[in-house]
Write a structure and sequence with these properties.
Layout: H1 5-21, E1 36-37, E2 51-57, E3 66-68, E4 71-78, E5 81-88, E6 94-101, E7 118-120, E8 123-127, E9 132-137, E10 143-149, H2 150-154, E11 168-170, E12 173-177, E13 180-183, E14 185-189, E15 195-198, E16 202-204, E17 211-215, E18 218-224, E19 228-233, E20 239-244, E21 257-259, E22 262-267, E23 272-279, E24 282-289, E25 300-302, E26 305-310, E27 313-318, E28 324-328, E29 337-341, E30 344-348, E31 353-359, E32 364-371, E33 383-385, E34 388-393, E35 396-401
Parallel strand pairs: 1-29
Antiparallel strand pairs: 2-35, 3-4, 4-5, 5-6, 7-8, 8-9, 9-10, 11-12, 12-14, 13-16, 14-15, 17-18, 18-19, 19-20, 21-22, 22-23, 23-24, 25-26, 26-27, 27-28, 29-30, 30-31, 31-32, 33-34, 34-35
């Protein structure tokens, strides 16, 4: 069937608009929680880097920005306040900036926010370093709808480097990890801000983002705590299983990976990773090795390939047996981050150097690198959105055009 010319033109225009609009990136690791973008990346990266569009000071912190409906939301800190800033994605114009007095913050010498915001239904949810979980109304210039300090409510003390669990939005609740003492995780009613769900598991929480997995048709909340990884009954909070995982300084911070009954966790300080096989009966350790020591940055599982920052080196393992396929000594340092789009990986080192790689999983090649920031604590993952890349180093957020020649 042939389409009328005017209708065909409309279809083409709408398709073009969809490409320009880009895919929203509303939470930690993106819309699917996998660190994989549908944006297109450059075919090569010159020493001068991509074209800079704008830059601005946005406050202290290591929390990655999110992007929804042409607006960036940055969770940051200014002095003793934590706040949320809304910025026009195209022009870098500040739309609003709201904040609150941060209390009970334990920063361990690293100033600013840690956990990435999460957006849903016009609201942004954040978790500050002192345990304050906040709901912000983006349709009312960032007005605070509610706020609860989970450490105070649980009677728990803060973690050594501050609470850093990026909020998980699932059903009617916001799920986050706690502190030292009390439940390792809590669920907060999205509408009221009241804690109405607590894990049976108690002790020391970790810094990692909780995830929800399907195990033989049953919904399970996985929490990578300070001393163990827990499988928790989603509705009632009962502990279904737990597997000890003791690491230096109790730093379990990287988001676990899950697919088809296989759960992988990894920690830094040379500890490496562990693969569990989950079933209705519980969890069984399949293997453990030191091939992937991911301190806190997110790993990426794409098909049968697992990519991650192994103590500063970009490494690819085969899923789920953990066989090493290749290693690239990109000198990312432990805080270097990754994002994948198509057959390419962008890696931003802790010292502000951007790397571009092409890979089909089994093989890889380097397509260039460029120094973007002159600082040694670039821990935020690059955000790809509507043909642009947004990168944060120190207190500066920079927008780059990925399409400019």
């Amino acid at each position: 069937m042939r389409l009328p010319v005017r209708l065909l033109s409309l279809v083409v225009l709408m398709a073009g608009a969809a490409v320009v609009a880009g895919e929203d990136w509303p939470q930690w690791r993106g819309p699917r929680g996998d660190g994989i973008s549908k944006e297109s990346l450059l075919d090569s990266l010159q020493a001068g880097g991509p074209t800079k569009v704008w830059s601005m000071k946005v406050g202290q912190g290591y929390a990655c920005p999110i992007a929804v409906n042409k607006t960036l939301y940055v969770f940051m800190a200014e002095g003793k306040k934590e706040g949320l800033m809304a910025i026009g994605a195209e022009d870098g114009k500040k739309l609003w900036n709201k904040s609150y007095d941060a209390t009970g913050l334990s920063d361990g010498g690293y100033k600013g926010t840690r956990a990435k915001p999460a957006f849903e239904g016009g609201k942004v949810y954040t978790m500050g370093g002192g345990g304050q979980v906040t709901c912000w109304d983006t349709e009312n210039a960032g007005a605070i709808v509610w706020q609860v300090n989970v450490l105070k409510e649980l009677g728990a003390s803060n973690l050594g480097w501050g609470t850093a669990s990026s909020p998980l939005l699932e059903g009617d609740r916001v799920y986050v990890q706690g502190g030292d003492g009390g439940p390792v995780a809590v669920g907060i009613d999205k509408k009221t801000g009241k804690i109405d769900w607590r894990s049976e598991a108690k002790g020391k929480s970790g810094y990692a983002h909780p995830i929800v997995v399907d195990v033989e048709g049953t919904k399970v909340l996985v929490v990578f705590g300070g001393k163990a990884v827990f499988g928790i009954e989603f509705d009632g909070g009962k502990t279904l299983w737990q597997q000890p995982w003791n690491t230096s300084y109790d730093v379990n911070a990287a988001t676990p990976l899950y697919r088809d009954g296989h759960l992988y966790v990894s920690s830094g300080y040379g500890h490496g990773g562990m693969m569990l096989k989950l079933s209705a009966k519980g969890a069984e350790k399949e293997w453990e090795n030191k091939e992937m020591a991911s301190k806190f940055q997110g790993m990426i599982l794409d098909g049968e390939f697992l990519y991650g920052n192994n103590s500063g080196k970009l490494k690819c393992l085969h899923w789920p047996d953990g066989k090493v396929l290749w290693t690239e000594d990109a000198k990312l340092s432990e805080g270097g981050s990754l994002v994948k789009a198509g057959d390419k990986i962008l890696a931003l080192s802790e010292r502000g150097k951007l790397f571009l790689f092409k890979t089909d999983g089994a093989n890889h090649s380097k397509l260039g690198d460029a120094q973007l920031f002159d600082t040694d604590q670039v821990w935020t993952t690059p955000l790809l959105y509507s043909g642009k890349m947004y990168a944060k180093g120190g207190d500066e957020l920079v927008c780059y055009d990925l399409n400019a020649k």
